Amino acid sequence: MNRTIAAFGCVVAMGVSALTLSEEPTAASRQLRAERPSTATGEWPTYGGDLANSKYSPLDQINASNFGSLRIAWRAKSPDGFLSMTLPDGTEWSADSKLIFEELSRVDPTRWRDNQPPFVQNYKVTPLMVGGTIYVNTPASVGAAYDARTGALKWVYNPKSYESGTTTMTLRWNQRGVAYWRAPSTAPGASGPEERVYWGTGDGYLIAVDAKTGRPVQEFGVNGKVDLMEGLPRAQRGTRDYLNALTYSVQSPPIVVKDMIVVPAAISSLIKTKEQIPGWMRAFDARTGKVRWTFQPIPQKGEFGADTWQDGSNEYAGKVTVWTIMSADEELGLLYLPTNTTAPDFYGAHRLGDNLFAESVVALDINTGKRVWHFQTVHHGLWDYDNPAAPNLLDITVNGTRIKALAQITKQGYVYTFDRATGRPVWDIVERPVPPSDVPGEKASPTQPMPTKPAAFEYQGATVNDLADFTPEIRAMAEQAIQGFRTGPLFTPPSIEGTIVRPGTTGGANWSGAAVDPETGLMYIPSRNAYAVSRLSPPDPKVHSNLLYMQTPGRNPQMPEGLPLFKPPYSRMTAIDMNTGDHKWMVPTGAGDRIRNNPRLKPLKLGPVGGDITLAGPLLTKTLLMYALTTGGIRGGPRLVAFDKATGKELASTDLPGSAVGTPMTYAIDGKQYIAISVQSPTPTDIPELIVLTLP
Question: What's the rounded Cα separation, in Å, for the pair 451 and 460?
Fold first, then answer.
């Protein structure tokens, strides 16, 4: 098999400034817009603004000259502050969520992992705005709608998924958004369109509600929900992994393509056996919830790619799926899947081979779910290098040729770029030798695919030359700190003693993804210089595992006095011209005063070193690149920063009442532009908020 590729504006008067929208619509385009909302009309109808996941809006009322004067137009506490539970007699009790969680824990002390109730601060939603209404969901899988002008609550729907237990995976209680669908109503006598909002829950259901009322759509599935575990081999509702979390959840928004809903899945990598739940990707009819097609990311006997799973391991392996956001090109009729690592993440002696279609970009026919082309970004994954974000779709001009391109950012710091119609790489991707594994039974891939362009956007590998060298004494401390650990280049495998892996499991890049300017072809990628230690040991007999080795906790390299182990920057924003594949600029994200003010470093008067970020993503408009930082506000606190798109220079900022946890979006209504972003509360015991900013 060939490893490299297997294919098959009107202006509205504002007062402060003008707000640029699209051209005056024709009758045909008005009809189309009635069916499909768009950022061109000032809306934000999908997680990334559009199916291409651009995170771009043509709005320009908010610009460098007035960004610093933004104020809070309205704010709304997360609906997770007030919840309900089902009582033994079938009635509902509603109360402050802290009381609800305490009572649920009292009724069943084993309900949650580590006896920890839902972490409602993980309010990672990027809201949608369609037709004057904001739509969100919460860590507790609650959906809600607000008036986009005033913030008045329109409805809340609570499926009470938290009653089932802790959501799967290490980063618990994640929800990142909802999906919106609109189509002509089929109801007799109906005059307007039918509108629905969809989201997945922490306990593995797909929810459909009426977008106007929040009431479950009765004809969708069973009373407005579909059981996503139904029909999956080795999936049993209510089962737990070895840390007492659920084994199947949904963390990211579904994607609406034509009249279908395609749903991601998060499947536990903490199941103690080699037999895993398969991560089937399914398209559901938007009206009925019935399955329209199924794609199995682990090919079975007789299917293309089955030979990349040795010794019949494809019959029991699992977890290969999409847990993050997806993208699509409806004109080409293609849906793009950024798949993850198979399980367990760090040991694969029981699944030898390249393991297609794990850690791949897979293009499916939207109508049938059939594979059209794919590219595997990591062979036989051992590093948890899931493709963490939706591929960005953009049109670029390379050497005079116009290309409908797809760019996949990765945890390992690469951008893989393809013709999105054919899967052909835009620039060569070369198989390069990487270190072998010496863990008993393991056979790491001898090569890994590495793009020749663009250059990596983040540090890769962990060697002595990468260690902090602010002074000779600090370099000596760093060299001492890594003693007893294995170090090496990118793709150095996990080991018994513990391998320092850089980028680590959180990247590099992560779920919030990159933003793309369709006018210039510039791609903006936030990333972090983080590392992890990947250590293996035989499982404890008490675990009753049939795996020879499992990931195990242990010590990490310890630098004295809170000093960093590696060279800066510790986070950055990189702009890449995707027409040439060249880096245009890179800037550290944040001054990094926590590091710079270390007593050993302060006398050095270092420049910005970064590190002042969360995992939230960027937002692009016609005028600005926006990104949230955790420091630098008037009182030293969090802020939303506007950067010059051409140079990366910081232009202005506005303070936020808490650290951003969701990626911002922007919308316009009644001739006024707004920016919405979810933020944590100042204290861990308070409730996070949705903050909406606008000009005075």
Answer: 13
Token couple for 448 = 């890994």
Distance of alpha carbon 246 from alpha carbon 91, whole angstroms: 25
Separation CA 417–CA 402 (nearest Å): 14
Q: Are strands 619-621 and 56-57 parallel, antiparallel or unpaired?
A: parallel
How far apart CA 575 and CA 584 sit, in angstroms, is 5
- Single out the residue of 540, 538, 537, 539 nearest to residue 554, CA to CA: 537
Contact 525, 578 (CB under 8 A): no
Chain mean pLDDT for the chain: 94
Please tell me the predicted confidence (pLDDT) of residue 33.
44
Three-class HEC string of 184-204: ECCCCCCCCEEEEEEEECCCC
Name the class of domain 11-694.
mainly beta
Q: Minimal CA–CA distance to 308: which of 371, 364, 358, 346? A: 358
Task: Give, in order, the Cα–Cα distances in Å from 260 to each of 248, 407, 612.
Answer: 22, 24, 39
From the list 657, 666, 664, the residue with the least C-alpha distance to 687 is 657
The 10 Å CB-count burial string (b at 16+, else e) for 368-382 is: ebebbbbbbbbbbbb
Residue 432 CB contacts under 8 Å (≥ 6 apart), including other chains: 447, 448, 450
- pTM of this prediction? 0.94
The predicted-structure confidence for 121-147, as pLDDT tens digits, reads as follows: 999 999 999 999 999 999 999 999 999
Would you give the DSSP letter of residue 307? Answer: G
pLDDT tens readout for residues 522-535: 999 999 999 999 99
User: In the block, which residue shows the tokens 């960027």?
Assistant: 618
Mean pLDDT of 590-599: 97
pLDDT of 8 reads 40
The dihedrals phi and psi of 105, each to the nearest 5 degrees, come to -70, -35
Interacting residues of 505 by C-beta distance below 8 A, sequence separation 6+: 345, 383, 384, 411, 532
Measured distance CA(624)–CA(632) in Å, rounded: 19
CA atoms within 13 A on the CB side of 308: 21
DSSP letter for 26, please: P
Q: Which is nearest to 463 in space by CA: 555, 531, 376, 535?
A: 531
Q: Mean pLDDT over residues 388-393, rounded? A: 98
C-beta of residue 182 within 8 angstroms of C-beta of residue 37: yes
φ and ψ of 363, to 5 deg: -100, 125
Residue-wise DSSP of 50-64: STT---EE---SS-T
Tokens read off for 106: 């009292």
Quick one: pLDDT at residue 16?
Answer: 33
| Distance in angstroms (rounded) separating the CA atoms of residues 526 and 514 | 7
Both tokens of 514, joined, read: 């990159």
pLDDT of the residue at 172: 83
pLDDT in tens, 306-362: 999 999 999 999 999 999 999 999 999 999 999 999 999 999 999 999 999 999 999
CA pair distance 663, 127, nearest whole angstrom: 9
